Records
---
Amino acid sequence: MANNKTEVRRILDKVKAEGRTSLTAPEGKLVCDAYGIPVPKEGVATSAADAAKLATGMGFPVVLKIVSPEILHKTEAGGVLVGVKSADEVQKGFDTIMANAKKYNAKANLLGVQVQQMLSGGQEVIVGAVTDPSFGKLVAFGLGGVLVEVLKDITFRLAPATREDALSMQDGIAAAAILKGVRGADPIDRESLARIIENVSLLVSDFPEIAEMDLNPVFATKNGATAADVRIVVDFKPVPPRYRPSHDDIVRDMNRIMKPDAVAVIGASSEDGKIGNSVMKNLINGGYKGEIYPINPSASEIMGRKAYKSVKDVPGKIDVAVFAIPAKFVPQALVEVGEKKIPGAVLIPSGFAETGNVAGQKEIVEIGHKYGVRLMGPNIYGFYYTWKNLCATFCTAYDVKGHAALSSQSGGIGMAIIGFSRSAKMGVSAIVGLGNKCDIDEDDLLTFFEQDDNTQIIAQHCEDLKDGRAFAEVAKRVSKKKPVVVLKAGRTAVGARAASSHTGALAGNDKIYEDVFKQSGVIRARSLRDLLEFARAIPVLPTPKGENVIIITGAGGSGVLLSDAVVDNGLTLMAMPPDLDAAFRKFIPPFGAAGNPVDITGGEPPKTYQNTIRLGLEDPRIHALILGYWHTIITPPMVFAKLASEVVEEMRAKGIDKPVVASLAGDVQVEEAAEYLFDHGIPAYPYSTEMPVAVLGAKYQWARGAGLI
Amino acid sequence: MANNKTEVRRILDKVKAEGRTSLTAPEGKLVCDAYGIPVPKEGVATSAADAAKLATGMGFPVVLKIVSPEILHKTEAGGVLVGVKSADEVQKGFDTIMANAKKYNAKANLLGVQVQQMLSGGQEVIVGAVTDPSFGKLVAFGLGGVLVEVLKDITFRLAPATREDALSMQDGIAAAAILKGVRGADPIDRESLARIIENVSLLVSDFPEIAEMDLNPVFATKNGATAADVRIVVDFKPVPPRYRPSHDDIVRDMNRIMKPDAVAVIGASSEDGKIGNSVMKNLINGGYKGEIYPINPSASEIMGRKAYKSVKDVPGKIDVAVFAIPAKFVPQALVEVGEKKIPGAVLIPSGFAETGNVAGQKEIVEIGHKYGVRLMGPNIYGFYYTWKNLCATFCTAYDVKGHAALSSQSGGIGMAIIGFSRSAKMGVSAIVGLGNKCDIDEDDLLTFFEQDDNTQIIAQHCEDLKDGRAFAEVAKRVSKKKPVVVLKAGRTAVGARAASSHTGALAGNDKIYEDVFKQSGVIRARSLRDLLEFARAIPVLPTPKGENVIIITGAGGSGVLLSDAVVDNGLTLMAMPPDLDAAFRKFIPPFGAAGNPVDITGGEPPKTYQNTIRLGLEDPRIHALILGYWHTIITPPMVFAKLASEVVEEMRAKGIDKPVVASLAGDVQVEEAAEYLFDHGIPAYPYSTEMPVAVLGAKYQWARGAGLI
């Protein structure tokens, strides 16, 4: 059934014409009718007798509610009576409500009393819609009563939501089991409820002026779902569209910026300690092979290269200009960059919005738009693109090539990324500072890395998303191809306040981030360390082909902790088939435990690890292995590391490639063993039973989101 | 009002005499009356007319319920009618219920129908009691309806519970806000509800034969609380008392075992690779200064020491015997240890309960009891006590003296403890393997470490507690003096299954562990890494004197993540008083952010860190500092580490000692800086914004539990 947009438009036009910000209940009902959202039988009575007649027509019990555009919170006003059971009671109720409403707000325009068929039975749920400054229209779902109010057990999806989204929302709340029927109650009609969710999400998408909508409660029964109460708030102020280049333009410009053939350094300097000097050194010593043009009005040569007064004086084409000059000189230089048709400016300088200089930031944004120059920053450390040996930054050089692309909103976090990467010998394709994000943001980077063959995983730290909707759209597409991991800082109220004071970030409702990330296939890192470890381990692991995980452990104690971690990380321990159980038992001592974990016991020689790991890889019913190693004299750490790597490589040669991770319990020699294992494709961690399972869990989360399992 | 034990005894005797396992509703009511638990007015009717008369007497509405010892789940049987509003309805209801009950269970003995005053309004809650195999009697509390059933929002305390326990339970559920009144509802009468909780807990403690008790629902209003339904299940099987030496005996024996003057090694060997050889080597090379007596029937000398055929042949006193012989020889040797009056046996051998040899384990336990020999293990790596240079283990020696005492149920986890300790240069007082815990367990260790001057923190890994009640009692006392950290493995259903197969551990209901740990002042580690990091950092940190935490950060981005971590770890960012805010502002650039976090911004020289840290320590309103360092050329990592350490030491010299932790964002040099800071009393972590706050949070949790803040 097609939705009746004309009818909704008519109603909204009337509301707008009358200068109202909300719809009356009868208007709300008409809107619901137009979008196929079931509502109870009802009518508006202007007299007690009228009310009684209406009620008798629809059958008892009924609900009586005041109708007044000025009274939004009807219960508070004493304007609601439920369970009214006879014509006589209805007459009395009418009078009571009108009197209460008058007392509550003497100026309110009382249009009458709504008489409504009273719904009962089934489960009370809430369906709503909100407008978020970053994500735009979202549809919300939760259970009625205290669950939403006290426990905040609510879930969101970007509107419009698909049928799958609408169904997944019904599993996305903590109290989901209630909808399936508890204590002998009937399960609710999921499809009917999903249709309401879908239609609400369509409605607010079709009519952006609907700022908020609440169906509370919706009675969901085994035979359907009906919205008992409708509240619609409107806002007719037009929302200015966000500047957003086309996909092709982003790809073209970002490729020139990230993989430039020629770089200009505006504010290049020969003087040690100057940022313009650090940038020059990093470019040259980093081994960048393209052209480097120092720009400095008062020098003819810098670090052995001819210097120019302006980028406009450079004879050749320039792909990106790195700014190392004070904020106040940026606008003029940026105009010259624009006139030179350079597609990108890397704005290292601080002194813009983050210090209160909002006007200065607005000015450069406008210049950027005018000339089509994409701006990175301002207030950043710059960026690295290792496969071009490019260190366009004033920090230390970084040159370990790899396949993880990282970015951070904050410079401090960027330095932590660099330190961790170097310490863990993590190869990266790029490290990018985004700072104030006045233009280039996370979705631009995703768009670039999506098509960058040197990048296999994208890990991003952010304090907000300037355009959450654009991010979600791009992430949804990109995450199908490459894992996207995000650490969203400002998760808590206290953190959000700090973010707002740090970068002016609008941290927003964290539950919305949580749900939208999930909807977009984004893996959410819970901590800085997780972001870094995921970036390091996920590209090393092959994609699992199914959900059957087994633990093979020498240390029974590790087996228990690894099992806890399996649950924590949303993985599933395979129920061991009897034949496979028997096959494992052949290799382990009689007092070892097969089942899952396979406990080979501590005193076993290398052969036992070897045989069981090989069996785990060979059997096609098993999809991933978690190894628990226990340091003993009989199987020392490096012996274990080598044998595990050998078996994994032997199987890879046969075309069997399953994710394998390892937890190493032992003396300090396990640290060397962990490094060896990591180098051989087995993410391994000493003194931790959590991290190996967390990285495997992250890989699985990605594979599921991308539809690969 | 004293509880009427005689009355309860009379009722229970009757139930026992009649061979029943549960009480009827009227019996339940009498028990409640005897213990001051308010219940509604009620009576039992044996005819419809009778029921109507009773109901009219107590006023409508009423509830009707079947009375039958065979029908426990009355609703399921169609044996309950609520909201019965007139004498006529009561008569009909009586007949319906009797008919339903007969249909449900034709053999049930129907004693009549209970007519009960119907309670309404207020909040429905549940108070109950259960009997746990490890913890014994526990009182439980939760909200009625789906919250307990679906969300498992329930909290436990050991019975008997104090008034404080009972009040804390009302804050201990996720939906606690509901009790305080939401949406204009009245807050409930906390004291009345607490009295019910207390009395239930007293009742089950006074009468251990009450196995289960359920008051469901209890109607809690602003004026009181009344239990609408009572269910009591009894079990008259006597529980055998657990073997438990007196506190003084434990202290005396554990001191001789842990700090022995003479050690016998049963199964000592000169042959490389034998466990008895490793133990000898570790004792000798570890630098142990006491007597070492090798015991071996077929050697006269081992490693330069006279060997004896039996401990009975040793002329002097022996404090502990380390067993390095196969399981089958243990019982005989243990008898000899008993006859020699050695107070402790360290049973390294495996091959007991963990391999199914339950009888063998029972045998040695009986020998231990008979001779008063305390048994450590079996199936362990042994133990270390560094302050005696004692390595009574077959693993590698460990000799970094310190103040953390660690133990593990599993050998693999023990090896992880050793590896981590060595890698992190963590000083320990002891590392102990507990294995099968046939005798010595966590509470024996707590009792020893409580009075051990070399120990400042006790960190334990366990898969179960053989006697949770004893543990809780000891932990509650010990944790007032020294922090006790526990990693309980088998937290999840999957982990619990693995634990059961690993050590036969009865992992139990994790929520009970959670609540009892909290009630006992125990800090719960969520991961192996947390256990280790807490053990390392907590003794380094001084005890905070109040809740006001501030963050001083160079990296704004770290400030945001640190703020999130503050919330995650139950800490409170101080609301910055205006004068203090102004004082900080004097030291930081105008675009830096005071408030809290104090964002000094990235480009600042050492002086800024110095000034702000000093101010943070000097101002008495501030109780703890979290530092966020950002690696820059102007303030390199070691410069920061030294200045921060200097300021902290300068203040300590003035008698100001506050906990300070640091998160270091930067290139690899921050690793050296972190080590330096740690050595100078500032737990510091590179590339992590979570761990520094987690260890501070753990210290706070301890200080609060011990009543120090």
Note: Chain B is about 40% helix and 20% strand.
---
Amino acid sequence: MSREPTSTVRLFVDRELTTGAAFELDKPQAHYLVNVMRLAVGSDLSLFNGRDGEWRATITSSSKGRVGLGLESCTREQDCGPDLWLVQAPIKSARMKTVIEKATELGVAAILPAVTQHTAVSGVNVDRLRATAIEAAEQCGRLSVPAVQNPKSLDQLIDTWPPHRCLVFCDETRAARPLIDAVREAVGQNDGGPWGLLIGPEGGFSGDEVDKLRRQPFVIPVKLGPRILRADTAAIAALSLWQAVAGDWRNGSD
Amino acid sequence: MSREPTSTVRLFVDRELTTGAAFELDKPQAHYLVNVMRLAVGSDLSLFNGRDGEWRATITSSSKGRVGLGLESCTREQDCGPDLWLVQAPIKSARMKTVIEKATELGVAAILPAVTQHTAVSGVNVDRLRATAIEAAEQCGRLSVPAVQNPKSLDQLIDTWPPHRCLVFCDETRAARPLIDAVREAVGQNDGGPWGLLIGPEGGFSGDEVDKLRRQPFVIPVKLGPRILRADTAAIAALSLWQAVAGDWRNGSD
């Protein structure tokens, strides 16, 4: 919480990271290093690509907007976080951006925009959401960037859902157990297994959608307290609770 | 969650709400009802004042920007949520606004801005934060608005902290137990008692601050997983976890 994002600059690069590797950054990242972060030849930074862990690199050249890097050593082994998907009905873009940023910090593996019957937002700018996810991953110290998938209809997602992946369904419309009770019980049967978490649009799910969801054997309906939460609040709250009882927030002091 | 904020307009008014009461709204609320929500004479809405429950009211007159209301009946008795304070170091205004909105939805009783040694934000617009809290309370169905206090120094807050109020301290710098474990254990000794939750600035707490906090008998240090959370994420996550193990999210299905 509330630590300076990191004293060392961290960048996500889609390059192979290996001992002795050297390459030039693309222009936006070169601009960021030189003009925003004011780094010069000889400065260190950290790189990750989602596969090869975290590496320390040094700026070896900087001229006319081009920045060359040389890799030094691997400073953290690649880890894999919990296999948790966030299925999120699109909401207004500022709040959707909040969800992507927070979901990345909270360790989701993938974000699946799901268009529901009451979804009021017409388009999803997936490229912009991916950029948000990269930025948040760089900031929060993750070694991977969650995949932001192209939107699908909720129907299609349900019909093709992997049957062994539990789907926690935040349902404010009908009786449901508190999230931590329901998830803790399910962890007994599915610890280490794959999970998903479904958050509706501001307009809520339709009755038909709720009926269909509740008929699926992989769906676990839950509730999040007595007040009406906005969609972005519900996403952040549910992800936090899931991490605390089923994810990587469970470990003791370290 | 993610339900349409409420089909009925809800307004917070600082008026006595009682059978037969009638009054005019102030201009911004009159403007909101007539020009934004397009309500006319005869329309119903809901009112709350933080003391007298929720009341159904009817628009009895509307002319030249003035709107008169007549109270019909009390539709919900006043309740009191958990006695939880959020002590939040000021952060950039958009993120501070997010914290106030989410903390209101998540049911805090009061928000106490605490200026720490690494607080980088110079001023706090308390009036604007109060307006955010009112708007969020209207939206989420609460019957009260959390008090947003004037900023104090963290030192002053610690020195005058009520000794029987547990203070959950999200400390990323040293070993600490996961929040839900530490809070659940403390609930055994303090169930129904008053609580607080402390979130630092983006720059983190200073070593001196951490030392001082950890010396206080009322402080419970906790951690929130292995990734670095932004201050606003940490606040929302910690409030959700607290509600789930010590607050009003604990109730069974309803």
Note: The longest strand of chain B covers residues 66-76.
---
Amino acid sequence: MPVLGAALAELGQQRVFDGLTIGFRLHLEPKTAVLVKGLLAGGARVVAMGNEGTTQFGTAEALAEWGCEVLDRPDDGKGAVLAHLSRIAEAGPNLVLDNGAELIEACVSAGRSPKGATEETTSGAFRLRAGLAGVVGFPVIVINDSPLKAIVENKHGVGESVVDAIVRATNMSLHKKRVVVFGYGWCGRGIALYARRRGADVTAVEPDPVKALEAAMDGFDVAGPDGAVRTADVGITATGRGRVVGYELIETLPDGALLANAGHTEAEIDVIRLEREAPGELVAPSLYAHELPGGRTVFLLAKGRIVNLAAAGGTGNPIEAMDLGLTLQARSLAALAASGGDFRPGPQPVPQKINDQTATAMLESMGQTPA
Amino acid sequence: MPVLGAALAELGQQRVFDGLTIGFRLHLEPKTAVLVKGLLAGGARVVAMGNEGTTQFGTAEALAEWGCEVLDRPDDGKGAVLAHLSRIAEAGPNLVLDNGAELIEACVSAGRSPKGATEETTSGAFRLRAGLAGVVGFPVIVINDSPLKAIVENKHGVGESVVDAIVRATNMSLHKKRVVVFGYGWCGRGIALYARRRGADVTAVEPDPVKALEAAMDGFDVAGPDGAVRTADVGITATGRGRVVGYELIETLPDGALLANAGHTEAEIDVIRLEREAPGELVAPSLYAHELPGGRTVFLLAKGRIVNLAAAGGTGNPIEAMDLGLTLQARSLAALAASGGDFRPGPQPVPQKINDQTATAMLESMGQTPA
Amino acid sequence: MPVLGAALAELGQQRVFDGLTIGFRLHLEPKTAVLVKGLLAGGARVVAMGNEGTTQFGTAEALAEWGCEVLDRPDDGKGAVLAHLSRIAEAGPNLVLDNGAELIEACVSAGRSPKGATEETTSGAFRLRAGLAGVVGFPVIVINDSPLKAIVENKHGVGESVVDAIVRATNMSLHKKRVVVFGYGWCGRGIALYARRRGADVTAVEPDPVKALEAAMDGFDVAGPDGAVRTADVGITATGRGRVVGYELIETLPDGALLANAGHTEAEIDVIRLEREAPGELVAPSLYAHELPGGRTVFLLAKGRIVNLAAAGGTGNPIEAMDLGLTLQARSLAALAASGGDFRPGPQPVPQKINDQTATAMLESMGQTPA
Amino acid sequence: MPVLGAALAELGQQRVFDGLTIGFRLHLEPKTAVLVKGLLAGGARVVAMGNEGTTQFGTAEALAEWGCEVLDRPDDGKGAVLAHLSRIAEAGPNLVLDNGAELIEACVSAGRSPKGATEETTSGAFRLRAGLAGVVGFPVIVINDSPLKAIVENKHGVGESVVDAIVRATNMSLHKKRVVVFGYGWCGRGIALYARRRGADVTAVEPDPVKALEAAMDGFDVAGPDGAVRTADVGITATGRGRVVGYELIETLPDGALLANAGHTEAEIDVIRLEREAPGELVAPSLYAHELPGGRTVFLLAKGRIVNLAAAGGTGNPIEAMDLGLTLQARSLAALAASGGDFRPGPQPVPQKINDQTATAMLESMGQTPA
């Protein structure tokens, strides 16, 4: 991760984190550990916990050795998680790095007001703008809103890895298969693009007519869900909304069709009702066959969980996308640490200067020489 | 133009233009004449003039026959143009369709306040937001700001026709030629895409690092202007800014390189100084050879004027892009006519409902069936 | 034409043509004139004539000035052409460059036996292998059989310029239009590729199942002629065979569909019967509307003649394809001149060494550095 | 495998295998077992063995249950293999399905002359045309020479799965990485294509100038091995020849470069000398880091063995390619069974009729409707 490495080296020399306490909540695995190590090297005290069930034991041990206080353990229950959140909040962090807005909420509940926070996810940002609107008195930079992430991670990282995961799990060729992509946002665009690059004929289902026209100008077919589903060899959801593919739609799929979900929530496909009407049988790693009452069989990958992470052998986004995201985190935390009131309270986008710096560094790591 | 035809038929039935006077200023040629005819059929009185020198005689005659008052003649001078603008303003139009904001300005000067206006161009919108800011007391819908135009006209229409015009004028194959595109906005994106589709290796020169990163993720090389120009077989400007390729850059082009401009202003390439230092010699229709003092020769297409229109055989955007743009005009005028104060004064984007309706109609004309 | 220039310079220095008489029959226009000039500079006497009606007056004058004997004039009738052929044959040429095998036939008739000949076209080669089989006692190198021409000229040159010619003549966008390509040989492959690159959905009609499977693996749809024609917005023939699109098929085209032919013979579309049943009306340069008895209108470009040459503004193949073809001619003539019986009599392919040399030179002209 | 299924059903009805003994040597795994089952159902007696170490226990058991005589066991040594080959030969098979020509050789040695044989591999065909030339008195159809396999398996199957395997093993994005492909045959073409589709800049190294020109016209860079290797982020061999990337070339790779081999023989990269000079250290599944004496590190995937099969998680070609190959086997065996002397002795291509039938069936399985 050359971009993150260079950013951490630069920030470390500037000692922007010197003496600060950082509350850190993110999957604790080797890549995020690089960020923690850099914060520690920059002079910070880091109190950390992972997301439920994502803390890797070796990583936690290594972090502890480097001086990070790691609170959680792989087998923590819901109660323990809440206790860890409180404990970090009680530590009175100067900066918070959050993932889902729960640590930010814990700080607010504990009457703590860090100088600023970063929030990794769009769903966390949604909570900050809905249930937590107006109650967060400190700035929260929403990393996922950066246009860099839309391009590098959502379009190319997710798009490519979702299609890879489907091919890997099925050993299927997509040539002249009909792939129906639900949602033509950044992820859907990428999925459609990479499915076509593997020879698929792609239909986009997108209720926004302007985006749908863009799909058509990009060369894809456009159809409503009912028409599209009837032709699908493969259906992939990437809408960020729930029950996009309800059971009634599933019933109209051709025999042998495959469903997968690329959204963060597994509710895009009505897996619950599908399981009830036609319980799945594991026929290959991560691949379930559901024999519908009418006789047709449909396949579901990874039980409808986010397929590029949850399917067997899924490796998530490429390392370059992690490099980018963690750099945005490091630079945003540094900007909050160094700020003198130039951030307003509440959720807000990554400052343009940080987007520009990070984009330039990423271009250079790709061998490109911008102006 | 099926999308425009359907829109005009629908609006005509609704009689939204019944009894209204419409001041109309747009190139008067067969395609825009279809719009005028529809407005007349919808019950409007239309007082029209073209842009300088663009009124086609046959079109003007036909319009007059249909009942349109056409003021200008192909050989009008600057003074006559101003007189026509005043005369339309004095007619007290209820609605204004403008192209460059001069007719809107004339209405303001004459103390007339139409119910609303549309402005075709981005440069007209710029004037409305700069010199005319605050003085226009009625709503002006800026057609060119519609995301539909960015996609259909700028990216695909301009991108494809600019590359076509260059190939046509030179009978050159672009295979493994190095094409340098200045500007990675909507037009630049399209030019880069269609140059690659003809086999070129493309470098994007783009000062905004986020857009530059998008260019790299789209697969193009990214370089600063100095480095890029040294490698260029073909250089194309599409920035909307002036003197992007100054004479100092031109001097560093390889022998035999070709320059063309895709922006609306011919000042993107410093043609004036180039002509002074190395006067061009016409070597093929629209194609000028400039022998530089150092001995190298560079070629310039269409004297730096917008190449897809100005180069020999240039046909501008495809008819589908015109169909879209004129439909946005017709529907925006109708919305203004029917409005009861739901538009604020001053320049503003095309209402989302109109974008959605038009996108849906365009999708249907492409054989696609959105939801 | 850098590749031809370098080849002629090299051959000129070797004086391979010194003192030889070359009978030359090819379109006499500025590009072929470069080849004649090089042969003259290499020491040859050249007696030349063009194809019927293709000799350009200025070119003939320039050639005469350089010392070439040009026999024909732009307005020669069939009788004059035969006289010229005889006269060249009677001159007892040492080498013959032919285009259609008529000059070769004239030599045979006159009892002349040059050391060798080249034949530009596949149809000439066909005559040599059919009607003239066994009667030609000297070697004839068939230029068009070179794999280089298949790739550079047929696939990319023809493919790109045919699609260009259609777009140019119609000012139509191909986005999401259905383009049906008849024939998936080298030309058809290129047409399908470049139509897709302009946004078209492409169907290939190809009776050979192995080629049809290749089309499908290349991502195109495959259908029989009856099914394909019913869906066509644009139909393009590129089969080299006659009556591929008969009148019965034309009758099933959708209203508004366009037909064009990319094959050398205009008989691929049954234009004769179409004209009889539904005479064409010129609606734009090269574009004819045929109103079928049933009420539908179909459009025909360039009366079914080879569209990239015959349509208005058609410029034929790019200059790079000419550079390649004329270099193969020059090197093949030189090899025949220098040969000591290493060529067998009758039609035969371009020697591999010449293909290799020319491919290497062309790669270098494209800035590539093969091993 | 719908194409194989339909072929076996058709052949079974025709009873072409009735009463025949078939000697069968091919990897015994679930997909090849489908072919064996079909032969049994068609009335044949099948005596089978796998390749060394490739027989899967469950498959062997299932085959035995269906009535197939399976000779080998997963842990057989070289001696046992030879014994099995002899035993099959001694059974006097009417037809032989071979993979490497060893069973064919055993038949010749035993003085047995089946009615005909099929040979799966190109290397087996090479042995038949070299060491065994003239001694095989019965026809041998070489499956791998079919143009269908070149397209479906080599270009698309191998090309796609090789690039997949590299991305999977490294979790690397190929965007703007420089991928150097050695060999622009069918496999190399596919690798270059799929690497580009993942965003890579691709250089082809190909000594044949005509193929190299095709690579350039396909849009790839072309360079000699020395120049190419210096720029490589990833180098992939696909030449079918030995020591294409010798140690001297490896020494000039940039720091951090990755090597992988897509050819059948692992000798394309000089792994032996690389291991001696810079022994590899396993840094991730299948991924070895070699620290060169000069200080640079290069990575080697799967020890230079065929990467789409040998790398961790490698799944080989997609199932559609197997479906094709096994169908060619089934139909070729049937044609030999039914033949009355219409095949000449020795190695020969798949009959065109079988290619055509299989291509048609495959097109139909892809939803295409050829003429």
Note: Chain C has 15 helices and 15 strands.
